[in-house]
Amino acid sequence: MCAELSMTLAGHPMQLLGMRALYWPARKTLMIADLHLGKADVFRRAGIGLPAGGTGEDIGRLTRLIAARPVDTLYILGDVLHGPAHRAAWYRQWQAWREQHASLRIGALSGNHDRVLPKADLGVELLGAHLSDGPFLLRHDPQAHPSLHMLCGHLHPLARLPGMQRRWPAFWLRERLTVLPAFSQFTAGIAPVMLPGEQLVACVEDEAIALPVGR
C-alpha cells in the first residue's frame, strides 16, 4: 500500500492520493470532488443525527494534502456545499482555514448541491459548469467527450477489497474519464458496474490501493 499512486492520464503524470484527491504535479494543482460543506448541519436541522466533527476532519485532511506538496491551485469539482449555507460551526471553520491559505487559488465547479454557492462567501472562484485545462475537461457530473479526458465527481464510487465487507471511497478509471471519490467522509455512494479495461483505486485509511483491471 502507498499514500499515492502514480498514473498517466491523457499523457500527463498524475498522482491518485489515498486521502481522496488527485494531484497534477506539472501544474501544482490539487483536485477534490464532493466536499459537501455543511452536510451534517443540514441533516441535523432535518432531525437526522450525524457525528460531530465531519467538516473539521475534512478540512484537516485538506490541510495535510496541501502541506505535503507544492499546491498553487485547488479545484473543487462540484458539490462544494450540501445545501443552504447556514452560518454554523462549519462555516467558521472554513473561513478560518481560508484565511490561513489566502494565497491559494481555489476554483469551484458548480454541482447539483451548489445552488446557493454564489452567495455563500467562501472565498472561492466560481468556474461555472465546466473548465478546460490542457487535455482535461473538469466538471461535476460525468459526460462523455470526444477528445478531452473528463475529470469529475458526483457518483461517489465505492470499492470493496477482497475479504472485507466494508466499501471504501475509490477513483473510477474509465476510457477518457476519471471519477474522483467523494472527499467528504459523510457520503453514501455506488459500487460501479465495471466494464472491461476499467479500474478502481480504493482509498483505504489514507492509502491508495489499485484493484485489478476489469475483464
Key features?
215 residues; 15 strands; alpha/beta; seven-stranded mixed beta sheet; single chain; Purple Acid Phosphatase, chain A, domain 2; eight-stranded mixed beta sheet; 15% helix; 3 helices
Record the SSE blueprint:
Layout: E1 4-9, E2 12-17, E3 21-24, E4 29-32, H1 39-45, H2 54-67, E5 73-77, H3 89-100, E6 105-109, E7 125-126, E8 130-133, E9 136-139, E10 149-152, E11 158-160, E12 167-174, E13 177-179, E14 199-204, E15 207-210
Parallel strand pairs: 4-5, 5-6, 6-7, 9-10, 10-13
Antiparallel strand pairs: 1-2, 2-3, 3-4, 8-9, 11-12, 12-13, 12-14, 14-15
Helix pairs in contact: 2-3
- CATH C-level name: Alpha Beta
| Sequence of secondary-structure elements | EEEEHHEHEEEEEEEEEE
What's the average pLDDT? 89
- In terms of quaternary structure, what is this? single chain
CATH topology: Purple Acid Phosphatase, chain A, domain 2
- Tell me how many strands there are: 15
Ranges with pLDDT <50 over ≥5 residues? none
Indicate the structural class. alpha/beta
- The number of helices is 3
Helix content: 10-25%
Question: What CATH architecture label applies?
Answer: 4-Layer Sandwich
Question: The biggest beta sheet, please?
Answer: 8 strands, mixed
Radius of gyration: 16 Å
The coarse overall form would be globular
Range of strand content: 25-35%
